[in-house]
Request: fold
Amino acid sequence: MDKKIRIIILILGVLLVLVFIFLFMAISSKEALRRQFESERQKFIQENEALTTKTKTLLEEKNRIQQRLDEIRRQLDQVSQEKENLEKKYEEIVKEREELIAQLKKMKASAVTTAPSAPVQPVEKPVEKPEAEDKYWAGVLKEKANLEMMVDQLKNQVSNLKLQMEELKNVKSNLELELKNVTSDKEELERKLSYTEKMIDSISLELVREKKEKRKIEEELKSLKSEHRMAIRRINSLNEEKLNLEKKIQEVENKNNELERKLKETTTALEKKILEAEEVKEKYVSSEKPQTPQAVELPPIVVHSPEIEAKPSEEKIIPKGKVLAVNKEYNFIIIDLGTDNGVNTGDLFEVYRDNQKIANIEVIQTRRNVSACEVRQQTTPLKVGDIVK
Reply:
């Protein structure tokens, strides 16, 4: 009975140890996952904010470059319009020049045709003829000078227009180069913007995946909490059973003490009876001395020792236990046998499953109720519940 109670208490203690180990591992893994999740979440938030600010700056720069491009196009259109106006003006001036040259040629031709016909006319007023010719030729010379001045002005205007045209061509080439640069910058910005959008999409997908993983972790935490509550209930029930067993053990000890006390009282009473019987025998023998003594046979009185009745013969029990935990990484196991069972460091045990030997183990560290054993040889992976002999 005592051994059964010890085994039950040992099993309860091992279960408590396993429950505490499981709870500690679950809480530590939960904290590690929570810290990792928080760090990853902060990292993604910072990257998202950086990408958002970068996107905003890129969009602002794109708008600014677009405005500049529109301004340059407007200026280019204005310059093209001015160029067309100057070309039209130049064509008008050339036409006017050609008309003036044609008029001048006509005037010269008319002057040449009128000069030889002068002697044919009758000479009526010889004094007034030279004055009219002088006035005419003075007007022609004046007109010629004016025309030459106009032609010089037109030439200067044409040269100025040519210079302006050259300048406009240079400006146009510069604007075209700047437009090409702006276009390339725009393409580069669009490419960066598309890359940024792709990055944002990928980050969004990662965030969605992280949210799913977080939800999964929360569900696992809920299940762990429920298991934790169930384990606590189980521990409480085991504690109650332990208290009940302790009460029963106390009651059994009390009964045992009471039985020992009664046994001692019975033994003393028997001893008194034996002494009284001997005294009666002596008196009877002394009173019957003249007569022939006859043998009086008394029934044998058997007195059992209380230690013999209380404690049956103990047989040596070979330690036998089970595997409580398996650590494959460091190649050791925990068994439910300790110093209370006579286990010492260096003892060798064999592990059985279904009455078949599967491993040899050696004790490397002991406690009262459990021991740590190194796996020396195994034919199949060990599991919790395997028998240790």
